[in-house]
Amino acid sequence: VDKTQHTIKQMMISDNKMFLVALSFAYFAKALSGSYMKSTITQLERRFDIPSYLIGVIDGSFEIGNLLVIAFVSYFGAKLHRPKIIAVGCVLMSIGTFIIALPHFIIGRYEFETSARRIVNSTLNVSPCAVGSSADLTQGGKLPEVPATGCEGESNLSMWIYVLLGNVLRGIGETPVQPLGISYIDDFTTEENAALYVGCVQTISVVGPVFGYLLGSLCAKIYVDIGFVKMETITITPADARWVGAWWLGYLIAGVITLLSAIPFWFLPRSLPMSGPRGPEKCTPEQKSFMKHKYPADEHASFTEMAKGEDFFPTLRTLLGHPVYLTYLCVTIIQLNSLIGMVTYKPKYIEQHFRQSASKANFLMGVINIPAVALGMFSGGLLMKRLKLNIMGAARFAFGTSLIGYVLSLFFFAMSCENAKVAGVTLSYNRISYDKHPVFTACNSDCFCSASDWDPVCGENGITYVSPCLAGCTDSAGSGKNTVFSNCSCVGVAGNFTASTGQCPHKDDCDRMFPYFLALSVITSFIISLGGTPGYMLLIRCIKPQLKSLALGFHTLATRTLAGIPAPIYFGAIIDSTCLKWGQKRCGGIGACRIYNTTSYRIAYLGLTLSLRTISFIICIPGFILLSRQLKKEEENAINKALANGGTELEALRKEEFIISNSDQMSDNSTDRETRL
User: What is the pLDDT of residue 438?
Assistant: First the structure.
């Protein structure tokens, strides 16, 4: 019998460890694919020629998929085979990730916008400046737009819809991983091991984004059609606004990793025998009462019956009527709007403002920012334990760290780069900067140019021109990235100046400022993250224990609905408003933005982020007052209860003494009677 019990115990420990490894791998896979999605924002914009607000819709679609099924999964999943439900979720996540990559294999090769593509089957260096007459131009001075061939039979369905649907499916698949995985660990391990196992899983989930951004950095260096085109014919570099990396490759890798994470869950049991302090025979009456509340017997009630339950809506009303909880909910929703919008577009901000490549921006996010956030969250929990903070102390700590991070973030406004010098966009051809700049001027009036093309060249004078044609270049030599345009009438007065492909660097001021930006970014990320754990503990402790589960669930629902979905959309729309030059779709219509107003971008991006946080700080003021009143009231109730209990105990002691004295008196009387007899 002892040998059998020992064997069962060993099997149980083995299954626990196997589940821990499987769940950690699943957390890693979902975190990797989620962060990789954010790292490919600019790649998707350029590949599908869509503005930033549509990218926000795609990014928020993950939360939509999650919200569609979270109620059903949380309720019914706990009554079914939890490991297999998680396995199904991982498979769905994998399928969704593969669907995101599907458009690459449907829409054909990437044809980036360039004025040189009109030269077909020619070995001669044809003049970029095709001589035309003013009669050939439209009234606005533009070349009449001619749709590209093959557009007649092109599907009206935009390919980015597949990315959106795939992300929705990813959200659906991710739903069971956290609630069912954590509850499985909590149900079938000892309390000490449960805390350790959950900590391991959370740590692995922080490692996932690091690898996700590093994968994004690697794929952004590789050209989108690698293996299908000759790289010698590609005239752009990864720093170009038209460059699209192999975004699809990372999704295939993430999809395979997610699919592999599903395999172990198919071989795990539905439940494990409980051991240790969780066993009823080893529990005190108080522990048994707690376990009865935490692990209720299976109730065969339907979801409809649960929703119609007499206790649900009154409990929800009580929760939403709790002033401290409601204030905390409002503050966190606003703070998360700021955080999600900032994190979603931070790589894009680094690219556009500091003129870094997408690969470098993603690399820095993965290597510097994410580890700083992870270290901050861990240090915050450690400090809370060392300082033994109560609920008010945790609130003050979280508010203080957030306020310090806010003050430091104000210095980002001073870390500015000048607008790129682009003739006809940010400054005029005579180098005078003003609001409206015509791309057509006297130096290119004899050329038959299109104002909508974006094929920038860098003149010897350090000015970028929208295209070789608009630079007035009449000759060209070389091929690919080594093409040199000559006799550019707009570059110099003599007309003998040359221009090379791509934008002029103009990175001197940015290169000096960029290291300071990175250092401040790491410091603010770390300080703000310090308050993450104390802030979460405030949510748990500010309400009654019986409302805790509902409070956490409603908090997750509210933040995902009111922050996770809308924040990327309106942040993207505001960023779009700072665009100076939009790209042109192959079949007509506005595409992705090619160049932004750096100053407007900085003010819009940072201003919106800090404005939301300012609002949250204002709401915190009544929040502290309400929390102080609640704690004072709880303290008074505790004192009154202690006094009442003390009075009751004193009365009981008096009765006990009276009974004992009567007993002694009766005993003495009996002894006297016996003596007399």
Answer: 73
